[in-house]
Design brief:
By secondary structure, this protein is α/β, with parallel strands linked by helices. The chain has two domains: about 260 residues, 3-Layer(aba) Sandwich (Rossmann fold), CATH 3.40.50.10540; about 80 residues, formyl-coa transferase, domain 3. The protein contains 17 helices and 13 strands. The strands form four sheets. The chain has a six-stranded parallel sheet, sandwiched between helices. Strands 9-10-11 form a three-stranded antiparallel sheet, covered by helices on one side. It has a two-stranded antiparallel sheet with strand order 6-7. Strand 9 and strand 10 form a beta hairpin. Helix 9 crosses helix 10. It is elongated.
Length: about 400
């Protein structure tokens, strides 16, 4: 294992693709959450070896829409090395054991208890390798009555209460991306970075657990606090904010939709006076505070909607911008593809180059340097040779 991350910092020369250079990460992963965490480590220059089943990570087969590859797999597995192992085979178990003896970080999101049954649980590994940082990602964590329950993103969206506040008054809805998986992957990435910093000070690794349920429960704190302490249970409002008004979508004369966000009374007064040309609306009974407007949301939205319906979306936006009112357009995926603020990066895949939306963290003047997408077992032969166990 490398002694500390600082061993390589002097060589990194402020290149974000080399921040974690020299770090070895072994992943026993599939689907989304663990690949998200390890993928961000790979983006930062860590050497990430992805251990797959002989048939491959099942996310490879989610779809074949990206030049024959899967959208999720292409997004989450750039810059990794792939080796296919059958961990019921003693020889392959021995190979993984040899790899972990050299590793700085081990990430796994197997079914509950599977890593332990194979001999690769955190307790056993940390006893053998005190400097190793282990990260186990699961649906519900290692304790509690649901610990052995299999879990996937939509199931956790429902269990965590997210679906109860997402959708329209007519019914709940799934968030359109795998938000629980992604949240868990983000928490895992953060926790691993914290553990690496701590290891640089203490020399000791750490066992980390992240659950999809725990990740989304943390993100649910605002509605939870409102419900528990304020006696207000957020309802499903579609494209409206549950506790701020006006804050949502309004149809314009050209059939397009504009969204506005009012954050305080000053902005509400500016909206009424400078956009609507009706300053007295801000002082009308039932309209003169956010609490009152939320209680009278239907009337507030009707009053706002009448003004927006008189003009095209771009005309409304011109007025909103002049009044310094926050606004947005209801974009579809074509709009996103052509959005002037969108940044892209190119990945190499076995079927040719693919443009992806670039990571959100950027260093001005530097373009992201993202690694290629590995074929299944692409690096197997050389990895088997590199980590060949010494003869008994």
């Amino acid at each position: 294992m490398s002694d500390t991350i600082s061993d390589t910092m002097g060589q990194a020369q402020n290149d974000p693709a080399r921040d974690l250079e020299g770090l070895l990460v072994i992943t026993l992963e599939h689907a989304v959450a663990a690949p998200y965490a390890s993928g961000r480590l790979a983006d930062a220059g860590a050497r990430v070896i992805k251990v797959e089943r002989p048939e491959g990570d099942f996310a490879r087969e989610y779809d074949h829409l990206v030049k024959g590859g899967s959208a999720y797999f292409v997004w989450l597995n750039r810059g990794k090395e792939s080796i296919a192992l059958n961990l019921k085979d003693p020889a392959d178990q021995k190979l993984l054991t040899a790899m972990l003896a050299e590793a700085d970080v081990f990430i796994q999101n197997l079914a509950p208890g599977a890593a332990e049954r194979l001999g690769f649980g955190s307790t056993e590994l940390r006893a053998r390798h005190p400097r190793l940082i282990t990260c186990a990602i699961s649906g519900y964590g290692s304790d509690g009555p649901y610990r052995d329950q299999k879990a996937y993103d939509l199931l956790i969206q429902a269990e965590s209460g997210l679906c109860a506040i997402n959708g329209t008054p007519e019914g709940p809805a799934r968030v359109g991306v795998s938000v629980c998986d992604i949240a868990a992957g983000m928490f895992a990435f953060q926790a691993i970075l914290k553990a690496l910093i701590a290891r640089g000070r203490t020399g000791e690794g750490r066992a980390i657990e992240v659950s999809l349920f725990g990740a989304m429960a943390d993100w649910m704190n605002v509605p939870y606090l409102q419900h528990r302490y304020g006696g207000i249970t957020p309802q499903r409002h579609g494209l409206k904010h549950p506790t701020i008004a006006p804050y949502g979508a309004f149809a314009c004369a050209d059939g397009k939709v504009v969204l506005i966000s009012i954050q305080n009374e000053r902005e509400w007064q500016q909206l009424c006076a400078e956009v609507f040309g009706q300053a007295d609306l801000a002082r009308r009974a039932g309209f003169d505070s956010n609490d009152a407007r939320v209680a009278n949301r239907a009337a507030v939205d009707r009053a706002c909607g009448r003004f927006f319906a008189r003009h095209s979306r771009e005309e409304n936006i011109e007025r909103l911008a002049a009044a310094k009112i926050a606004y947005g357009r209801l974009s579809d995926l074509d709009d996103l593809t052509n959005h002037p603020q969108a940044h892209f990066a190119t990945l190499e895949t076995e079927h040719g180059p693919v443009d992806v939306l670039a990571p959100a963290d950027r260093i001005p003047g530097q373009e992201p340097n993202l690694g290629p997408i590995p074929r299944l077992d692409e690096h197997g032969p050389q990895l088997r040779q590199e980590f060949a166990a010494e003869p008994d």
